[in-house]
């Protein structure tokens, strides 16, 4: 779990909607500071985090903009579960534009689930009003308390529980975007300047050219990794292609367990309470990991995939047992990768683009 807290100060240029993002500490990091080590949870079965305004007059909540899921939901006054009671809740009776659809649904995550009643309301994104958006209101939640009060899913509508149109689809249908894209620039942890941009690519946020690769399934933002090398030595793991989800809602890079074990042995990582750590004095001697995507090499240096948290050098790579819809082991390119590379999610052309972050 991670925190991407949206700041309401925005700049609107042409049809672009630019939203500054602040990156906070993950729940695991906050608990570690209190001397509590959380048990391992498969990040591929995860839950995902930024600030949205819903209703008229607007009610404001920190939410997660997540390319790994498709539903839009917030905690509501109808939910009295522990995870709902740690922050503000949406009250539909205080919104003149809310309409109850009479439908319900449930979303199941690896860390738990949430029951929702569905309705329609106005959602404000970076100063732009999206009318009649389907919004899920939590009625109960089986989740650990998190810093965010809801999720804005940006995956394909086929991934949405209850058949909800995604926020992206509604914005597209209402002609609010110049181009049907959303792009992310994630500054390094601890630094400001992160940004999400609807409708336009921000050329100042990346260097060189964008490499495009097609989406292989219209469910997640799933692409194909063509190769994976350790210190320029091709592993052969992706010689037939490795399906990978590109997911802003996952903190790390994840890989199938059978490859993960070999890599941890290769870099000398030791396990502790589900996470893997290396000797901080040896980080500069660790190998560079290189992904080949769309015919272009995307290297991750040791400083990119090793996270130094208060003197603990944790590996920002974790195993997952997830398969894609065809039963193939699934990789996930999360924030460890997306911090290094500007990412563009193009619904019009069903493709994802990457370029070195500025």
TrEMBL record:
Signal peptide per UniProt: 1-16
Source organism, top-level taxon: Eukaryota
GO molecular function, one term: aspartic-type endopeptidase activity
Domain Peptidase A1, first and last residues per copy: 48-355
Keywords: Disulfide bond, Signal
Annotated disulfide bonds: 79-84
One Pfam family named in its UniProt record: Asp
BP term (GO), one: proteolysis
Matches recorded under Gene3D superfamilies: Acid Proteases
Active site, UniProt feature: 66, 247
UniProt keyword Signal present: yes
Family of the protein in this entry: Belongs to the peptidase A1 family.
Protein name: Peptidase A1 domain-containing protein
Organism expressing this protein natively: Denticeps clupeoides
């Amino acid at each position: 779990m991670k925190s991407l807290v949206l700041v309401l100060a925005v700049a609107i240029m042409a049809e672009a909607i630019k939203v500054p993002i602040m990156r906070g500490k993950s729940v695991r990091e906050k608990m570690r500071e209190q001397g509590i080590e959380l048990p391992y949870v498969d990040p591929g079965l995860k839950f995902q985090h930024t600030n949205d305004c819903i209703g008229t007059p607007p009610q404001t909540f920190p939410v997660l903009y997540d390319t790994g899921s498709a539903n839009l939901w917030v905690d509501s006054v109808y939910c009295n579960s522990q995870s709902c009671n740690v922050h503000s809740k949406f009250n539909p009776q205080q919104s003149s534009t809310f309409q109850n659809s009479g439908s319900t649904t449930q979303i199941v995550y690896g860390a738990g689930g949430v029951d929702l009643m569905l309705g329609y309301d106005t959602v404000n994104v970076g100063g732009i009003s999206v009318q009649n958006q389907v919004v899920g209101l939590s009625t109960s939640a089986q989740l650990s308390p998190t810093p965010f009060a809801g999720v804005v899913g940006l995956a394909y509508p086929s991934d949405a529980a209850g058949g909800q149109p995604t926020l992206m689809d509604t914005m597209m249908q209402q002609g609010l975007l110049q181009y049907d894209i959303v792009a992310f620039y994630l500054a390094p942890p601890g630094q400001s300047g992160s940004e999400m941009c609807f409708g336009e690519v921000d050329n100042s946020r990346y260097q060189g050219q964008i490499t495009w690769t097609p989406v292989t399934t219209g469910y997640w933002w799933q692409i194909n990794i063509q190769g994976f090398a350790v210190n320029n030595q091709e592993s052969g793991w992706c010689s037939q292609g490795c399906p990978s989800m590109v997911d802003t809602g996952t903190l790390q890079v994840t890989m199938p367990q059978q490859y993960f074990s070999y890599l941890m042995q290769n870099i000398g990582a030791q396990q502790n309470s589900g996470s893997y750590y290396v000797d901080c004095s040896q980080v500069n001697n660790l190998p560079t990991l290189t992904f080949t995507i769309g015919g272009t090499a995307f290297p991750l240096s040791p400083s990119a995939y090793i996270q130094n948290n208060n003197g603990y050098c944790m590996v920002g790579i974790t195993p997952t047992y997830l398969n894609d819809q065809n039963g193939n082991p699934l990789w996930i390119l999360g924030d460890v990768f997306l911090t290094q590379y500007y990412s563009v999610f193009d619904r019009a052309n069903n493709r994802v683009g990457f370029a070195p972050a500025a």
